[in-house]
Design brief:
This protein is an all-alpha fold and about 160 residues long. It has helices at about 5-10, 20-30, 35-55, 65-110, 120-125, 130-135, 150-164. It is about 75% helix and about 0% strand. The longest helix has about 45 residues, at about 65-110.
């Protein structure tokens, strides 16, 4: 039996790319070594099976093209729905905070001002009772501009009344 086996030659090269001299070396060695003969037989059978399998032509089923296109359309429709879902998930926190802000402002605007006023504020506003309607509807009564002194006097009088 020969000490040099051909397993490396069979494993490292493709069966179709073996040269004639390599095939002769393999044939001479397999005549003496039964384990290499089994390995060479397995490699040749594998090569033949692969050649036969690649030579087969597969025809798709009659409605394959239609089914594939229908499946692609379904996936595109699902992706469009999924895109809206992703957009909503990205903006949900922003939209929720905007709704909460509007609700808080509505509560502050419509509910809280109906509560009782402080006595200092009521007294000051009674002295300077101007409403937007009076200013708009009776412009002749408010022709004179308030001077800086009268404004400061009014402010400081209100502050002193509150501290006394």
């Amino acid at each position: 039996m020969n000490d040099k086996h051909i397993l490396d030659l069979i494993e490292n090269t493709t069966f179709n790319s073996l040269s004639e001299s390599e095939l002769n070396t393999i044939r001479l060695h397999t005549a003496e070594c039964s384990s290499c003969q089994k390995a060479f037989a397995a490699a040749s059978i594998s090569s033949l099976l692969l050649k036969e399998r690649t030579a087969e032509v597969f025809e798709p089923s009659p409605f394959f093209h239609t089914r594939v296109l229908a499946h692609l359309r379904e996936r595109q429709a699902a992706n469009e729905t999924w895109a809206w879902h992703r957009i909503w998930r990205a903006t949900a926190a922003l939209a929720s905070s905007m709704v909460a802000t509007v609700a808080a402002l509505a509560v502050l605007t419509f509910v809280i001002p109906d509560g009782p006023l402080s006595p200092d504020f009521a007294e000051t506003s009674a002295r300077n009772a101007y409403s937007a309607e009076e200013v708009i509807l009776n412009p002749g009564d408010f022709d004179e501009q308030a001077s800086d002194g009268s404004v400061l006097t009014t402010l400081y009088d209100a502050a002193e009344d509150g501290t006394k």
